Structures are given as structure tokens and as C-alpha cells.
Amino acid sequence: MAQVIEEPRKVQYPLDPNSYKILDEIGTGVSAIVYKAICLPMNSTIVAIKAIDLDQSKADLDSVRRETKAMSLLSHQNILKAHCSFTVERRLWVVMPFMSAGSLQSIISSSFPDGFSEPCIAFVLRETLNALLYLHNQGHLHRDIKAGNILVDADGSVKLGDFGVSASIYESNLSQGTSYSSLSSSLMLNDVTGTPYWMAPEVIHSHTGYGFKADIWSFGITALELAHGRPPLSHLPPSKSLIMRITNRFRLSDYERNKKGKNKKFSKAFREVVSSCLTQDPSKRPTAEKLLKHPFFRYCKNADFLVRNVLQGLPTVEERFKQSRLHRPLPVAGDGEESSVGTVVKHRRISGWNFNEEVLELDPVFPTEREESSLEIQNEDDSIVKQVRFGGEIIIQSRHEEQLELNTSDPNSPISILDETHESEVVAGETNVDEPAEIEGNEEVGMENPPPELMAVEPVIYPLTALIPNLLALQNSLDEERQLISHVVTYIRGGSEVSEEQLQQTVEELQKRIQDLRLELEQERKRTTDLEMQLESLRRRGTAASVSDSSGRDEEQLQQRNEQLLQRNEQLRLELEVEIKRGSESSSSSH
Amino acid sequence: MKGLFKSKPRTPAELVRQTRELLIYADMKSDRESKREEKMAELGKLIRELKSILYGNGESEPVSEACSQLTQEFFKENTLRLLIICIPKLNLEARKDATQVVANLQRQQVHSRLIASDYLEANIDLMDRLISGYEDTDISLHYGAMLRECIRHQSIARYVLVSEHMKKFFDYIQLPNFDIAADAAATFKELLTRHKSTVAEFLSKNYDWFFAEYNSKLLESTNYITRRQAVKLLGDILLDRSNSAVMMQYVSSRDNLRILMNLLRESSKSIQLEAFHVFKLFAANQNKPPDIVSILVANRSKLLRFFGDFKIDKEDEQFEADKAQVVKEIAALEARDRP
Predict the structure, then answer these.
(1) What is the DSSP letter of A174?
(2) Is the CB of residue A244 less than 8 Å from the CB of residue A395?
(3) Has residue B118 been placed in a domain?
(4) DSSP letter string over A257-311?
(5) Cα atoms in the 13 Å half-sphere on the side-chain side of B47
(6) Domain A100-326, CATH
(7) In total, how many domains does chain B have?
(8) B91, B225, B261 member nearest A54 (Cβ)
(9) One digit per residue, pLDDT tens: chain B, 339 residues?
(10) Alpha-carbon gap, residue A59 to A55, rounded angstroms
(11) Could you say which residues form the signal peptide (chain B) (predicted)?
(12) Do A65 and B267 lie within an 8 Å CB cutoff?
């Protein structure tokens, strides 16, 4: 292929931070910040710098090395290549070309909430496929295909970015072997950006590991993301209480959005492409090469089309970033709990997906935590999903409560589980009939076809005692949920006296306050780092003296001040959290 | 129609011979530009074919008979030397293929012998060339990858360890270009951990200069990543059973203890933790020299306070046990010190 070969870069970008001037922050992650900067010695060429905090990454540096090396040895017009990388204190700076239109995800969230038109989708997907084809021929996996990693330049050129670096730095369990074959068992929800929505079933399930076809799956999800403006089910936080947290609130907003978008219609060709990528069995998914030959990509538009139809009038990347900070979606109430659940969160998996080609929607099937302890009571999983999808909030709760009571109160009767399941399945079936019409018109009818693997139910009987801890956890999260709801209810009741406008005002005030606090926190952080650096240099000086009396008074003082600052920092953070919670509660009650 | 003109498939040995001819051609400077381009493209194709024989392609697994023929022909003459020399003249894709071919050949057995090892022993100067690749940004990653494959052979690793090159690694590791520095660090680690007996012999014979360099250039480097990698590797080396003599020598030095205690006080959690795994050896040593004891006693209260607060994110029984042991050892010094 002609575009594959491009001679290695001749220009060597400078390897010291002083040659760059940082202009603006344009992105943040858990342990990385992306800046827009200029490279002074190179005629002030604009670049993007991704600064990764190496001390925060638990991964061994070998995997970091493998990935940056792989990246620097790739050369393709649709792959974003690093100019160079070097360390600055504890951070790894990866200097890259600045893609001025930003990621597709950022374009969508700022200006195309309902997704792109089909010709645009076809163009960017084809470019992405070119990149994937090259990568796969080289024996590389991308592992993180999503709109947020597909970048666009001012001229409409499209590049797949963030190759590997993010995946490898945050996942400590890359396979050690010579091949790129498998992200082994536990690439789970500990991923920073919370990318589970794009993950292929076999990746989540971990039995077969990650192959090229898993990239194809993520590609399919990305297609949905571009079509609908968000990946399937992205409104669900990936947390322990996920099952419980699908509320009418979310459903409603989705519904409204869909109405606005007039239920977009998609061509048969597009639907074919997506559904072939989202085949459960990886071996039945097409390769990138085969996909490129699909009629959907035959009469593709060019980059100019993208410029005219998408890029024109778009806010700059910097503006969008600032905007997203201001309007960062307030975390769903109870989100704070996620960090504290730690391990439990990580083990949350999705057991399967139901793809509904008609409306181009994908519905995951969530197992209960029971499956996590390798108890595969799949029919029960299924029933819970149904409840969640179609049941009203209150109804779900009471039903689950019954279930819990039954199970815990009668630990000696293993059969009860099966009976129970049957019952709830029937009940779920009933709700199923009424609810969909209410929620999304009649579109969702006919999606009740669980994939074959879910149909094959094995009625294995397990000692119930093994289930109790999980059930208790479930109950706890139910309790939390109930509390939240009662909060909301009180708010709504109290709110009926307050006018809508007033509420709106309160929300705005709160948002502003949050913003202020955030800024303050940032400043404190900066100050802390400065002090830390001072401390460091003092230490070095101290080292020259003998060990036994090394710590000078200055240092002690600094240390103290530092600790104070850290404490203050922590306080601020707590305050911020409280504010956020309040904000989200009042905003939800105002809606 | 295309099939009509398809030439008879060439045998692996023929492929190697053609590759060799083109490499000789590529090595010379001559000819018109257009003709040269054509030949270089042909060379690139040949190298890719060699690669697909050795690794198999999408449809088929590699055939051991073909691999064996290829390997034999490859090492019968100086094809490896030519290939290494010509790397800078190849384009990026051909370089990557060539690197993979060289890597694979190191593991190919012919009549249950690794003939690559014999070849390299007879052409040991090739190692000098590969190592010098770290000084040329353009080719360092390709040469680096080949180098790491070559030192899988014990005799070759021994050559590099005792050569003057070993000293250069202390600088290569700290090159500003992260990719290259990290590649050099990976090779350095491989050299110091793969072949246990060779490493133990090297370390005990070269103890003085090696650890003097290691301490001053790596453990006390101003570069965070250098310190972090160095203290981790030091732990790996000293905790290896085959290096126990070297370990005893290392933990008997007052200077070494001072350096490790400074690393313990770093603000980086990762460095602290790795430093602890080395520091514990000083504390656990049952024959501590007096000056080691005196430092530990002088810093006893600080150390105990430090370990009291020293926690890691995840639960780790081994770590807790080690920590308890270290605390016990240091507290016991108190009793011995003040009768």
C-alpha cells in the first residue's frame, strides 16, 4: 500500500522542556495532562504534549518502554506519531503533532450531541480502518479504539492516536511474551477513562484474551458512538451498584434526546457494518481488510467534506476543554463511593451484549456478582437485566428485597434459587410488555433475544452460603440507593414550593462555587509541588553532609509546612466533594 | 491471468542467497538512483519473505524444515553481518522485518545446535557495532532489539559484560531520548540478570568499579527514572541467590547504606518501596560491621518512626512481614548498644 511507507522523520525535536512553551491545557486524565504548546527552536511550531505521571503508574517501566517504542516505530498517515519523548522529573513528556480539531469525542460533545451524519461517519471510519489495517499487519493491537482516540486536524485529516501508551501504562498486566497477543485476564474497569463500554465480550470475559478481533469490536462500538453521540449505555456508571443505578431519570433524558434527533435512520450498509463488528464470536467478525471492502466505504467523501460539514465554526480545542470543565457532567450521586469500593468495582463485568440492528443499539447483559465467584447462574442474570431495563425504580427495589429475603432466610434449600429465578423471569416478562412502549416507543420490542450462550442455561445448584456475602453487598448498595432516592424525594417535595427559576439559580451558584474550589485546589496543588521541589533540593544538599545529622531545621519546617498544605489540600478536596454532591442532588431535583 | 506469470516458488536457501546478493549491492555505492530504488524495494520484499517463513503468516504456521534450511544458508556465509551493516540503508518497514528475522534466527536450532551462537562467537565484533547503535538515534531501536536477542547466548553476554562497552551503558541509560534510554536500560537489565553464573562471576571480579559507577551515576542520578530503575534492578541483583557473595559485600558498606537511606526518604512511593527491598538486607544481615550498626543506631528513632508510617497501597503480607523483621532488627540494636 502506497501510503504505508513514509521515510523516518528527519527533523529531531528538542529533548528538553525549556525548548517548549506551554500555552494551554487541552485535556486531562487520571495521571496525564495534555497541553497545547509551541516548540521554540522550531519556528514555534504548535505541538501537543502529553505529560504522564510515571510515579502514579503502577506498571513496570518495561511495558512503558515496549509501547513507546512500538509507537515510535510506526509510520502511517492515519496514525498519530510522537515527535519524541523524554522525562521531566517524574513525568514522561510525549511530544506529538497538534491536531487542531481535537478528538471526535470532543467534537461530538461540543457540537454534535446527536452524532454525525452518515457520510461523515463513513469517512472517519474508513480512515480509522486504514490505521487499524496497518497496525494489525504490523502485529500490533490498538486496544483502545474509541472516538476519544480518533483525532482530526484542521484540514480534515484523521489520525488514530494514543497508541498503546495509555493502555500499557495503566495496565500492569501486559503479557510479558514476545507477542502482542493478549492483554491477559484482567483488563477491567480500572482503566482510567472508564473505557469498558468499548470492550469486546471476550476481553471482558478474559477466557480467550485480546486479539485483533477485539479491536474490531471496539471499532463497532465507536461506530455507534459516532452515530448516536455516545457509546451504548455510557449513561451507566461502571460501578458496583450499576444494576441498581439505571433510573428513570436517565431513561427519560435519553428519550428526550431521541425525540429531538427524530430517531435517526441509518442505511442498511451502515447497519451491516456495525452488526458484523459486534458479532459475539470473534472469529466471525470481519478483519479490517475485509471491512474496507464493504460497500459502505465505497463512495466515501473526502477530508474537505469533513471540513465543510463538521469542522467549520467549531470552537477551538482550548475553548472546548474549558467548556467541558465548566459543564463537566456532575457525577451521579453516590459516585464518590466508587473509589472506596475498589476491588469490587474492578470485578464488575458484562456478560454479554444484545445487539439490536434495527435501531442500531446495543444492550449489555450484566451478570450479577454471583457470576464473579464463577457461579454461573445465567438465567438469573438474565432476569435481573430485564428487570433493570424495564422495571421502575421502586418496583425493582421491592423485588430485589424479596429476593434477598428469600435467599438469605432459606439457606438450606438450594432449589429455592431456581424457583425464585423462574418467578422473577416471569415478572420481568410482564413488565417487559408494558414498559418499552412507554419508554422508547415500540423500538425496543424484539430485542429480547439473548445471545445463544445465555440461552444455554445450566441449572447447577450451589451451596447458598457462598452467595451470602454477595447478597449482603447487594443489599448494602440497595440501602444506599434507597437513601439517595429519599433524598431526591425530599428535594422534590421541598422544591415544589420553590420556583423552578430559583432552583436553577441555586444550581448555577453551586456550579460556580465548585469551579472556584477547583481552581483553589489546583493552586494549592501547584504550591505543594513547588515546595516539594524545594524540599528535594534541600535534601540533596543534606545528603552531602553525613547521614546521621542530615535533617536541617529548614527542612523540618518545610516538611511541616508541606504537611499543613497537604492537609489543607485534603480539606479542600472534601469540601469540593460535598459541593459536588449537593450540586448533583439539586440539579437532579430541578429537572 | 496473474497466476500464469507467477514464477516457481523459491526455496528458503535461494531466498537467502538472493537476499545476500542484494545486500552486497546495497552496501556498495554506485548505480543510478532509479535502478537502486528498484533493487532496494526487491530487497525489502525478500526480507519480508524470510520473515514469513520464520514466523508463518496469517494462514500457516512456520515449517521447521524450511526454517532450518533458511538458518543454515544464512549462517553459512556472512549474511548476518551484511544485514546488520545495511540496516541504515533500509526503509522503516524493512528494518523492522530485518530486526524480527535476526531475532528469530537466534532461537533456530539446526541439528539441535544454536548455530547463531557459533556464528556470533566467530564474528564477535558485530556486537561492538550493535552496541554503538545507541549513539545513532536513527538505528538505535533496531540495533538495540537485535542486541538483546544476541545476548541470549551466554558466551555472547559474557563478552559484552567484560568488554569496555559495559561502562558506556551507564551513560546510554541516561540519554535524553526516552525510547533509546529505555531500550538501553532493558539491555542493561538483561545483561545483569539473564545468565546467573556469568553475572555472579562478573560482579565479584568487577565489584569495585561497577558499584562505584552504579551508586554515583545511577542511584544518585538527578534523573527520577534512572534512580527508580536502578534501585529496582539493584534489588533484583542482590536478592538473587547466585549473587549472595556480592550481596554480603554490598550490605557491609557504610556508603551504600547512606545512599539507600536517602532513597528511602524520597517523596516517590515507587522509589521508597524499591529502596526498602534493598535496605532490609542491611538490617537483616546477621554480621553487621560496626560502622553499619552505628549508623543504624544513630538513626534508630527516625527509622522506627519512618517504618511506623511506611505503608503501601495494596495489602502485601510479605512486605508487612519484612517490615516487621526490619523493625525488630533495628529495635534490637538498641538493646545491644546500651547494655
Answers:
(1) B
(2) no
(3) yes
(4) HHHHTT-----HHHHHHHHHHT-SSGGGSPPHHHHHTSGGGTT---HHHHIIIII
(5) 30
(6) 1.10.510.10
(7) 1
(8) B225
(9) 444 555 667 899 999 999 999 999 888 876 677 888 899 999 999 999 999 999 887 677 889 999 999 999 999 999 999 999 999 999 999 999 999 999 999 999 998 889 999 999 999 999 999 999 999 999 999 999 999 999 999 999 999 999 999 999 999 999 999 999 999 999 999 999 999 999 999 999 999 999 999 999 999 999 999 999 999 999 999 999 999 999 999 999 999 999 999 999 999 999 999 999 999 999 999 999 999 999 999 999 999 999 999 988 778 899 999 999 999 999 988 555 444
(10) 9
(11) none
(12) no
Cβ contacts (< 8 Å) between B225 and chain A: which residues? Answer: 54, 61, 87, 92
Q: Identify any residues that bridge with A440 across adjacent strands, giving them in sequence order.
A: A442
Q: Tell me, yes or no, whether B51 lies in a domain.
A: yes
C-alpha cell at B69: 534450511
Helix pair angle (B165-172, B125-132), 10° resolution: 20
Q: Is B81 helix (H, G, I), strand (E, B) or coil?
A: helix
Cβ–Cβ gap A6/B92 under 8 Å: yes
Q: Is pLDDT larger for residue A44 or for residue A242?
A: A44
Q: List, in sequence order, every beta strand (DSSP E) within A369-508.
A: none
DSSP conformational letter for B2: G
Q: Do B182 and A68 touch (CB under 8 A)?
A: yes
> Band of the pLDDT at A5, cuts 50, 70, 90?
very low
Q: Strand pairing partners for A355?
A: A362
Burial degree of A228 (CB within 10 A; 0-12, 13-18, 19+): buried
State the nearest Cα–Cα gap between A168 and chain B, in angstroms: 15
Helix (H, G, I), strand (E, B) or coil at B44: helix
Residue whose C-alpha cell is 544518585: B220
B182 interaction partners in chain A (CB closer than 8 Å): 61, 64-65, 68-69
- Distance between alpha carbon B127 and the CA centroid of its chain, in Å? 14
Which grid coordinates belong to B191? 545483561
Helix (H, G, I), strand (E, B), or coil: what is residue A513? helix
Q: Which of residues 517-536 of A touch B (CB under 8 A)?
A: 532, 535-536
List the Cα angle A585/A250/A383 in 5-degree steps: 120
Q: How far apart are the C-alpha atoms of A232 and A235, rounded to whole Å?
A: 8
Query: Is the pLDDT higher at A523 or at A165?
Result: A523
Burial of A222 (0-12, 13-18, 19+ CB in 10 A): buried
How sure is the predictor about A199, in pLDDT bands with cuts at 50, 70 and 90?
low
3 state SS of A372: helix
- Among A53, A144, A191, A549, the one annotated catalytic: A144
Three-state DSSP class for A469?
A: helix
Cα A363 to chain centroid distance, Å, stands at: 16
Q: Do A54 and B261 touch (CB under 8 A)?
A: no
- How far apart CA B79 and CA A44 sit, in angstroms, is 46
Q: Which amino acid is at A277?
A: C
Residue B36's contacts (CB-CB under 8 Å, 6 or more residues apart) are none
> In this predicted complex, what is the ipTM?
0.91
Residue of A389, A354, A135 whose CA lies nearest to A244: A389
The answer as to whether B95 is a domain residue is yes
- A118-127, A417-426, A522-531: least confidently modelled range: A417-426
Question: Model confidence at A542, in pLDDT bands (50, 70, 90)?
Answer: low
Asked if residue A290 belongs to a known ligand binding site, the reply is no
The residue extents of the domains of chain A are: 100-326, 384-489, 500-543+552-590
Rounded Cα distance, B113 and B109, in Å? 5
Residue B330: inside a domain, yes or no?
A: no
